[in-house]
Write a structure and sequence with these properties.
Layout: E1 8-14, E2 19-22, E3 28-41, E4 48-60, H1 61-70, E5 76-89, E6 95-110, E7 119-120, H2 126-142
Parallel strand pairs: 4-6
Antiparallel strand pairs: 1-3, 1-5, 2-3, 3-4, 5-6, 6-7
Length: 153
């Protein structure tokens, strides 16, 4: 075992509508720009400070299609994936590179102007799936009708 891990988790707002295109192979690809922010108070001046970081995210196949259909600028999303660096030569002959997150899981946490709407775009993580199944089992047990025996024991 090498002891390495390449995993990225983001919760942030879309900076623009997804840019969905089709590769030469016919496979859809979507590019997202996601903003994450943090706020803190400067100890010496007591001034409130904010910092926003922008992340490039790329989605393929079904996730790309769903992003194009359901996501809009301002949507709060959860993205899970891995970092990947791509290199290419531009039209001007200059070699360029970019590092982006290749998304493996996408969840829309809410739509703009809608409060607390959650839509699962990808399969539930194992913990959430387990909790959902346990809630369903508990509900079905509460709804069971118990019968008393009606005959000789």
């Amino acid at each position: 075992m090498t002891g390495t891990l390449n995993k990225a988790l983001l919760i942030g707002h879309l900076g623009h509508d997804p840019d969905v295109r089709t590769l030469n192979s016919g496979e859809p690809v979507a590019h997202l720009s996601i903003a994450t922010s943090e706020a803190w108070k400067n100890k010496s001046t007591s001034a409130r400070r904010d910092a926003t970081e922008w992340h490039r995210v790329v989605l393929y196949k079904r996730l790309a299609e769903l992003a194009g259909q359901h996501l809009k600028k301002g949507t709060l999303v959860y993205v899970e994936g891995h970092l990947q660096t791509r290199k290419w030569t531009g039209k001007d002959g200059i070699e360029r590179h970019t590092t982006e997150i290749v998304g493996d899981e996408l969840r829309m946490l809410h739509r703009p102007n809608e409060h607390k709407l959650q839509i699962t775009v990808h399969e539930d993580p194992p913990v959430e799936r387990f909790l959902r199944q346990e809630r369903e089992r508990a509900t079905s047990k509460d709804n069971l009708i118990t019968r008393r025996p009606t005959g000789p024991l």
